Amino acid sequence: MGRVTYFFNALWKFMKGVKSNHFNSMFKRLEFILILSYYITLMVIFKKRLIPSDLYTILGQVQAFIALYLAFRYRYLGLGLLISLEIYQTLFLVKELLLKPSVSLFAGLISLFITTILATILAYLSNKQEVQKNELKRLAITDDLTNVYNQRFFKSNMDYEVNRAKRNKRSLGLILIDIDNFKKYNDIYGHDRGDSVLKSTASLIKVAIGNSYTAYRLGGDEFAVVLPDSDQFNTIRVADNIRTEFEAQREFCFGEGIGSQISLSMGISQYPDKASNRDELISQADMALYHSKNLGKNKIHFYQDVISRIRAGISTDHRHLIGVFRALLSTISAKDTYTLGHSERVSNYAVMLGEALNLSLKEICVIQYAGLLHDIGKIEIPKNVLNKTGYLSDEEYEMIKLHPVYSANILESMSDMDQLVDYVKHHHERFDGTGYPCGLAGNQISLGARIICIADSFDAMLSERPYSSSMNVDEALEELRRCAGEHFDPQLVALFVSLMKIKV
Q1: Which of 71, 228, 247, 447 could bridge to 123 as Cys pair (CB 3.0-4.6 Å)?
Q2: Does the model's pTM come out above 0.90?
Q3: Could you tell me the fold of the domain covering 151-304?
């Protein structure tokens, strides 16, 4: 029974390979039928003697050419069909020779024999060339270390998958995966052991997702899984399968000690439910991954549109603000994609602090809006200044310092949201009075502005910017503690650090 199953599995695999290699388009299928029909037609003409004998030589040359083309174009498949047909034709010629020997029939037999040898050689060379071409293609799109697809193929294939999902009106899931504590493991045990972690992780991901979905290594310790025709429920299920498989094999693959601290953080988004295009899908999954990393490792986080969250909690009096917020965020996103993701994260951190302080729902909502819109004034700052990689000149720095004022000016039209304007305008004030734009100090700075200041600075320290490299969570929390009493409200810093320690 096992041999029969193996045979049918091998046959099915062979047939799938033939289809993908030779018949993956209508043109290729029509071409094959046409060539085979020509060859068989020539055989019939030859057998039935439908043309004068003087034309047999020309007929034989045409038939030989078609035979060689069949072997070249369809390799071993073409050769197999060719040999089957030529065995039949050989038997016919042998029968004719026995009944009525002639030089022309003998020459035709020799010609068939030579054609078969040449077709065999041609099929072999053509197949070898195709194997080499496929291997080069595989190497170009495969990560050398982990043997999963690389970042370059991820980008091109995402375009294809999003377009296919749009055309067929289907869903597309994306999971971004980051290995927690990989840098610590790599620093302690060395790059060889670190490479082993990457290879094992890639293998575990491939096992967990099965054959229906595709894994990629995006660089460093980050991977991705693309899930065509997958709804939100299934995408989360697959992510949970990955984590379950990883945790089940962790001790075997990585050992104890630091190896036991290795885990996976994942960010998920979905097309078209959340994202409307490829870039949005990747950006949203990346923001969700960032949330998983910094609000507790070894987590799976599904991207939640901040506007949707605000809509769920906003009061009836403020419903009209939803459209305003969305328009403002779209404007800043078009100019600076970093600022959009940063603002969403700042909003999350600020709400976390507000809830820990037991603020009223109304106060927390205003803090949430302020976190989301605190940098909206950057739309007035030239893009070359926002994205400058070197040090800012005094003039450029003064320009940057105006963005809280610009933000406040934009939001002042919301006459019933004075607190929002205050929080946004003063989120760069410092506790010791050396901040801007008004030089307020201590409790002169509103509580909401002090909260946004901590959330904004913490996320900025964790983010890779054109002008500075990122810190890890522990380094950023230590920097908050160091600057407490000068830059930040020390009581709020102590509370924020304790909250983040619990989550991380």
Answers
A1: 71
A2: no
A3: Alpha-Beta Plaits (3.30.70)
